[in-house]
């Protein structure tokens, strides 16, 4: 179902298109009755005033919305910084929305950004089944998340990254390496690569998915309990913060890293490697991811007729590399 247009509001209120525009922009004298009729039509049709105002005046806001799971994670903080820098170089400003890994909050941000006249949206969250993306009017680009065939996805080569991490643990002697991730689903290429690599070596894969919305304290408890119940000699963590939790657990429980427990993380943000220089991790090209996401969105905004070309260009995954430290 298409979104209501200005003409629909005018017809429902029994006034002209110009009158609706004047009501929405609070211009000139208008009777209380006309204002009431337009307001009721807007509410009944579920129409976004600012979005329509944008189409009326034919101007761009030069604003872009970025929705992230949490800037507390160094990966997303650095990604947001790179996206903002690239947008700024092209004359755009960025509105940062931290959904705190909450699907309902993400949907609210998506609605708010469109209502406030952003020219486009970049989303890097991982909540599933969030309503609104399929109805969005603003151009959208996704980072490491598949939302639909018409939305470009910017990502690094997660399948290669998963093989690098798992293969490295096996090469270092692990025979019961486990994988810890937020969610385990068919689109999780890191999990798929972990399972494939383990089975290729005749080993049994074991996966813990703690859930994106799980609070940090509870997440840590789940991970520690699971590790206690599993005789693992290696851990492949889907992000560096989780890898650092595993390292702390190993210290508390007397596991010797890397003698009896080998640990590999994922992301390789500057902040994580500064905090733990010895962490073995799969490094994503965060700067390149952010720059490509911003560039792909700007192409969608400024040259919509070239959308298919920009989408296909965005689909090519960026390369990753294994950064080897002393934890494996």
From TrEMBL:
Residues 4-58 form the HTH lacI-type domain. GO terms for molecular function: DNA binding. SMART domains: HTH_LACI. Transmembrane segments: none annotated. Signal peptide: none annotated. The keyword DNA-binding applies. Keywords: DNA-binding, Repressor, Transcription, Transcription regulation. This is LacI family DNA-binding transcriptional regulator. The lineage of its organism: Bacteria, Bacillati, Actinomycetota, Actinomycetes, Micrococcales.
